[in-house]
Amino acid sequence: MGYTRLQVRIIRRRIEMATNMIAEILASGDEICSGAILDSNSAHIAQKLEKAGIKVVRHSCVGDDINTIAGILKEIGGRADIVVVTGGLGLTADDLTAEAAANAAGVELQTMLPKGAESLCNLVGTASGFFMKIGRCSAFFMPGVPSEMRRMLSDTVLPRIKKLQGNSRKFRQVKEISLFGLTESAISERITDLKVKFPEIKPGICVRFPEVHIKLYANGENKKNLNELLKNACKWVLKKIGKSAFSVDGDSMETVVGNLLRREKSTIAVAESCTGGLISHWLTNVPGSSYYFLFSGVTYSNKAKIKVLDVLPATLKRYGAVHEETAKEMAEGARRIAGATYGLSTTGIAGPSGGTTYKPVGTVCIGLATPYGTKSHRFNFAFDDRSMNKKIFAMTALDLLRRELLGNVDEIRNVDEIISGS
Amino acid sequence: MGYTRLQVRIIRRRIEMATNMIAEILASGDEICSGAILDSNSAHIAQKLEKAGIKVVRHSCVGDDINTIAGILKEIGGRADIVVVTGGLGLTADDLTAEAAANAAGVELQTMLPKGAESLCNLVGTASGFFMKIGRCSAFFMPGVPSEMRRMLSDTVLPRIKKLQGNSRKFRQVKEISLFGLTESAISERITDLKVKFPEIKPGICVRFPEVHIKLYANGENKKNLNELLKNACKWVLKKIGKSAFSVDGDSMETVVGNLLRREKSTIAVAESCTGGLISHWLTNVPGSSYYFLFSGVTYSNKAKIKVLDVLPATLKRYGAVHEETAKEMAEGARRIAGATYGLSTTGIAGPSGGTTYKPVGTVCIGLATPYGTKSHRFNFAFDDRSMNKKIFAMTALDLLRRELLGNVDEIRNVDEIISGS
After folding, report:
1. Which of A34, A48, A206, A398 should we substitute to test contact with B (largest number of B Cβ atoms within 10 Å)?
2. Per-residue pLDDT tens for B137-162?
3. Does the beta carbon of B206 lie under 8 angstroms from any beta carbon of chain A?
4. Model's pTM, two decimal places?
5. A397 touches chain B (CB under 8 A)
6. What is the value of ipTM here, to two decimals?
7. Distance of CA A332 to the CA centre of its chain
8. What domains, with CATH codes, occur in chain B?
9. Best CA proximity match to A160, nearest among A81, A105, A69
10. N or C: which end of chain B has fewer CB within 10 A?
């Protein structure tokens, strides 16, 4: 039945209020401000704070200028409960954060730290962090090196923040559904009723090409209730999007495929032309993949297709390298040579050149050899970007294998089955 | 000879002043603010603005809240000459930017745009951008979808910004040197005298693991003079860092290696164990790589090493899979099967498991078969991260091939030779 629009708005507002502390994130550094380095620290910190039930209302980034840093710290000190700062700690001339923080708080600098600041130890690097109050705001300063920052955040900063929250602690729980094969707008359309069915839940869709991720957020005091709510919302979403979902716990496609192969004690061999090694690179990113991944032949030249994969010269002559028949022989060849349960192949045109009227850039043929026979499919994608094509070709191939391993269910009987294959 | 510290500071200050307009960047969106999506737009915009001679002093990011967006736009309107905003354009409930901009400027919203705003057309998507003044600040609003934003930025926004600069236009030129094999601190030490030799140039070092990039920035009115200055500084830096530099024009390692192979009309075949296809993935990311890249055998299992690459079972039995001898046979096998000029191989332990006392995680053996014989090397890296190990193994292998193709110069006679191989 659901709720009216007004009720939804009231419920949303109540949930928003349930988040008790607000935080800001500040990154300092000329290289980040000028765009030379992508700031991945701020997104990482935001995720961890949100998970701890703290609302992140603003990120900022400024260059290595002492007055600018001091000015923005003073601003934030008057606005937020918590600020987490990265960068500018250390001993070089660009490391101005401690002095800027002292200026912002109107205290002296003593032995490299603002007066009254507490040092935060760095277990994996040389530059210590520190904690101090700026106005009413609790300010945590960490080094900008991602590995050092992450360690200090989890070991020292987050536990202290949890202490600051005390008994008034609220939780923010997240459930993430990973999909391949539906566009962002198609997903939006399918889950448009989520807000009336589950007004307590805030959805977010983010595209990490070629995957799409639906995130479901819930805020509140009772962790168990939140998780129950999220579980139900997740089931509802899965019914709407069906088999395109490949995981509900953040697992990558290659991890999901790997788990399915392990479950049935099967092995895989790959024959890649246009994906150029990307499928094997992804598969072997999973620790323990040597249990099921045996071999990939990246056969760019026709000679290698014939010599390594036993593709028949006649097939190449009759159909060309990019064809369903060639894809079939490649998949069968890889499977046979490696003695694997499955053989998976790609042959296509990633671009920018090599396209023809009949086989334009974005064409890919994918073969899948199984113990019960060999299938092959042709797809046409509309990207004129070599790197995007490689990714979507490789992901499509892995998704075909995933669906094969799930028993290629055409009708959704049980949503849990789609995800876990159990 | 150089300059004194005081002179350096004065020159730096003068250059800083030469940059005439200051800009800020604002990203809006709950998914960015909560860290679910990494904001790559802001870094891209910053790079382009800096290149146009405009100093970026601050980036900010806020969630989809109309009051917050309006508030920060008003702030920026009072501070900056230019603001470039991304996100929140379109027709859904979260798309609040136009209304927020109208609030900030104190104007009405008319047919979806703030009164007086000019629409900026979107050639690759549905949501138009717009331009308006907020206070004294020229504000450009663009969609958050990276491909749409990039197109609108280059086609519409940057040309308008150049017009705003008028005759007072300053330039900011950059030279980028890409390195592999030296740490950030080793580089800092070697180029520490840069600031006294070339006080007009501001250096920046950024790590994109496993590469390191030295950026040299110069600001001023005469583009030709700036480029001459940067060229001299670049030569100076190259003398200090030597063969570790692999490009001075932003080319990737795989592009450099590809160009060297093309120049001598050579071909390459690869045999990968621990790198799992990453070397071939990188090599085939380069358009036109099919001219020189013939084949890669990703031989995870010993069986595949024997069957596909003709590695002798006796070698595997005597030395094990991770050994210089095995690496040699793998490289020779790949070279022979594909009929390639060079064969390159990797076999090692990427982790997290599989390490022993004698062959700990991070051990890799790399083989290089050439028309004049086969070499192999063993390296030990100290990372306990599978993905980092795969990257540094693959990059080390490509770097060995690069040095071979350059004639393996041991002494630096001519810095140009190191880079271009000419």
Report:
1. A34
2. 999 999 998 989 999 999 999 999 98
3. yes
4. 0.83
5. no
6. 0.82
7. 33
8. 20-168 (3.40.980.10), 171-247 (3.30.70.2860), 253-405 (3.90.950.20)
9. A81
10. N
